[in-house]
Each structure stands twice: as C-alpha cells, then as structure tokens.
Write a structure and sequence with these properties.
This protein is 40% helix and 22% strand. The protein has 213 residues and is of the alpha/beta class. It has a single domain (5-206), classed as Rossmann fold, CATH 3.40.50. β5, α3 (82-92) and β6 form a beta-alpha-beta unit.
Length: 213
Amino acid sequence: MILNKDTAKKTAELLLQVKAIKLSPNEPFTWASGWKSPIYCDNRVTLSYPPVRNFLKEKIAKLVEEKYGKPDVIAGVATGAIAIGVLVAQELGVPFVYVRPEPKKHGRKNQIEGFLESGQNVVVVEDLISTGKSSLNAIKALKEANATVKGMVAIFSYGFSIASEAFKDFNLDFTTLSNYEELLEQALDSNYINEKELITLESWRLNPSEWNQ
C-alpha cells in the first residue's frame, strides 16, 4: 500500500524529474536478472538532490511514526537504503543499523552492522521493493538477532504480486511512498509518456519475467 495519493504522485514526479526512474518502453533495459524491462530505478540518485532527499526523509520519518510509533532502531537494507535509512534515523533521533545481503567472510562476520540489542523494536527502510527477496532476507536476519520487526517502509515498489505474496507469507506489513501504478499515472499526466507507451508499460508489469518487445 502507499502512504497517500498526493505523496505518491509527488514522489513519482520527483523520481522522474531527477532521473532516479527512467522509462524507456521502446528501448528496454536489461536487469541483472536478465529480465527485459521498460523501467529502470536507482533511488540513490535522489541523494544528489538535497530538496528531493529531504522530501523523502521527512515523508518516510512521518510515515514510520504514524504507523509504528517511534522505533528503537531504524535498519537500512544494504546497499541502496543505507543512506536514506541514516537520514530517516537522524530525523527521528534514533539509532541506525544496516543489514548486509549475507554475513561478512572475515572479522566479526557480521550481517547486521551497528549496535542492536535483543528485543528492540525495528522499522526497516528500503529504497526499492522489486521481488521482495532482498528485503525479506534483511528482515530474516533481524529476526534471527531477536529484533522485533514492526514493518518496512520503502520509497518505491514495482507492485509485483510475487512481492506482495512473499510479505504476506512472512506476515509483515510494508508501505511505500509511491508505486508503479502511481508512477505511470504521473508520467502520463506530465506527458512523459503517451497512451501507446502506457499500454506497453502496463503489459510489462503483468508478466515481467517473460515480457519482451
């Protein structure tokens, strides 16, 4: 689910504006997974634009407090959500940790970096929810460290059903500032795409792993 319609549209507008999200239905991108995609999202780009990163920081912090109350700790998912997670933790005045995809192979072999006590309430911050695999991997690590994971907040989601089902199976709540549906609506309203391109972009989301031109 999204925070609210106005925030979703404004977030989508800003992500398109700074090219954190690029739409290219006629010349698709190739993801690391091998999927062909008419969209590419790298929300780390927002960090280079102070007004945009401040907007995201304030909206996520407000959402965290409204939904979960003030947590003991904010946890960012490495690497994309480390910076925005720090900003949110700073805004809320709470500690921050981040979660690696897997434990380090050397030193203390940490998967969670930072100080986390058993039983602390944690809200996870993510930059992008795709299939949900990396997000849920981080949540699993936090639960294994005996943290109480209250939920997850992300900047953007593609809205894949595979992610929704995975979170449901994990019995975990997540909210995003914006999502693919709101993005397409905003892109059409601002003439970033036309009606024909909209059809192509909508068809991709229905079957992304097998979609092609």
